[in-house]
Design a protein that fits this description.
Elements (H helix, E strand, L loop, with lengths): L1 E6 L9 E5 L8 E11 L1 H8 L8 E2 L4 E8 L11 E4 L10 E5 L3 E3 L6 H21 L7 E4 L5 H13 L2 E6 L2 H10 L3 E4 L5 H8 L5 E6 L6 H7 E9 L13 H5 L4 E3 L3 H4 L3 H16 L7 E6 L3 H9 L6 E5 L1
Parallel strand pairs: 9-10, 9-12, 10-11, 12-13, 13-14, 15-16
Antiparallel strand pairs: 1-2, 1-4, 3-5, 3-7, 3-16, 5-6, 6-8
Helix pairs in contact: 2-3, 2-9, 3-4, 5-6
């Protein structure tokens, strides 16, 4: 027997139950991992509240890191005792044990701890595809990145600095502004007391930004459009304030022949080879110190509901992990 978080209905944090379960034996191409640390992400909340479909009852969570405990008969790339991480597998990482397809696992190098991997794999791979694949930033650009003090934003600030990119980060307080700038943001905008549109125009000498990254969604959609330069790109990659709906494509013409994309990690890490190449780039930057992984909160697995409530209430900084 092992412990996991399970939900039988959609709703708030109260629907999360800490229960006993018996993990299945690995199939031919599966691996059983004993989780040492588990990542907590906004997408988990979307599954919990029903924004994203989930067949109930179900486990929850998609990110974790730990040690291989058993392998299926057709698995050759991993062995018992290997340290691995994952973030694109089926729901169920909020658990002491997870049985996963071998194709979603990535090897964990010696210079990266399980806690670092659980805190940074999903967020870091997200930043990788945002900055290195979608934006294809070369250095010298000035970009806008919402929620720059959050888990994804804190890594984006550092990675942008390493690329020579000027990142303007929106934040909700003076404390978060100081933190984002310490991590590498070129400038910050405190949306609680500053006009984001006006500040972007000021900071870019009226040019706006060639790329705007928005994980907030409904509350920032129109602001983001107003901050994109002519023929620029708006990357909408999250729904922290709710989904963007009722979009009139004509507004893209009105704002300057803009481009918009709504990407997902699954759309970029869509093969084991691409996933592991992206992870290797991320982990190399973590191991050499270019990316500092800040774990702002650690919660026991049993307290997953409280951890999610704090994240949804924007009361967290950096990454949050659960410990089995």
């Amino acid at each position: 027997m092992a412990k996991r978080i399970q939900l039988s209905r959609h709703g708030g944090p109260e629907v999360l139950e800490y229960v006993d379960f018996t993990p299945a034996a690995p199939g031919p191409r599966e691996v059983r991992v004993r989780n040492q640390a588990i990542g907590l992400n906004f997408i988990d909340i979307y599954y919990r509240n029903g924004l994203y479909p989930l067949s109930l009852p179900s486990g929850l969570g998609s990110e974790g890191a730990g040690v291989v405990e058993a392998v299926g008969s057709a698995v050759s790339e991993f062995q018992v005792g290997d340290r691995v991480a994952y973030c694109t597998g089926p729901q169920g990482s909020y658990a002491e044990l997870s049985v996963l397809p071998a194709d979603v696992l990535v090897p964990l190098p010696a210079g990266v701890s399980c806690e670092q991997a659980a805190a940074a794999t999903l967020k870091g791979l997200t930043v990788q595809y945002l900055l290195r694949q979608i934006g294809k930033l070369q250095g010298g650009e000035t970009i806008l990145f919402h929620a720059a003090a959050g888990g994804v934003g804190s890594l984006a600030c550092q990675w942008a600095r390493a690329l020579g990119v000027r990142l303007i980060g929106t934040v909700g307080s003076a404390e978060k502004a100081e933190r984002a700038q310490a991590l590498g943001a070129w400038a910050t905008i405190d949306y609680s007391r500053e006009d984001v549109r006006a500040r972007v125009l000021e900071l870019t000498d009226g040019e706006k930004c060639p790329v705007v990254y928005d994980s907030v969604g409904k509350d920032t959609w129109e602001i983001s459009l107003d901050c994109v330069a002519r023929r620029g790109l708006l990357v909408s990659f999250g729904n922290a304030s709710g989904p963007v709906t009722g979009v009139n494509l004509g507004i893209l013409a009105q704002k300057g022949s803009l481009f918009v994309t709504r990407p997902t990690l699954a759309g970029y890490a869509d093969t084991p080879e691409r996933l592991r190449a992206m992870a290797a780039e991320l982990y190399a930057l973590v191991a050499n110190g270019t990316l500092q992984v800040e774990i702002g909160q650690r919660h026991a697995l049993a307290d997953a509901g409280a951890a999610q409530a704090a994240q949804a209430g924007r009361k967290t900084t950096g990454s949050t992990i659960l410990l089995p």
